[in-house]
Write a structure and sequence with these properties.
Elements lengths: L5 H12 L2 H13 L4 H7 L4 H13 L3 E5 L5 E5 L2 H28 L1
Antiparallel strand pairs: 1-2
Helix pairs in contact: 1-5, 3-4
């Protein structure tokens, strides 16, 4: 993940969130806490292999962190840092639009 470039971080987050399966995995982790791919496969209509691939992409985007557990099981937990960067990126973009949109409203109104 490109920690130093907020736009690059936001791009990775948006790409990761574009897939409904990955959003479902994030929602399951948010609701149930850290889990293994096997745990998630038991809760979601996705195979364990597909979940593992999605988790790898989510980890690459920094949205989940892999933590070694017992008997070589890896548990994944959410990391909100990249999501906050993406939110800040969107907020800045919205601020950039607010001025021109207000001016257009005044002109048209």
């Amino acid at each position: 993940m490109a920690d130093s470039d907020p736009e690059a971080v936001a791009q990775e987050v948006f790409a990761a969130l574009a897939d409904p399966s990955r959003r479902g995995i994030l929602a399951a982790l948010a609701a149930g806490g850290p889990a293994t791919a096997t745990d998630l496969a038991a809760r979601l209509p996705i195979t364990r292999q597909a979940i593992a691939k999605h988790l790898a992409l989510l980890a690459e985007a920094g949205l989940v962190v892999a933590e070694p557990g017992e008997r070589r099981r890896v548990r994944y937990r959410l990391d909100s840092g990249p999501m906050k960067v993406a939110q800040q990126f969107l907020a800045a973009l919205a601020r950039d639009w607010d001025g021109p949109l207000a001016a257009l409203r005044r002109e048209l109104g």
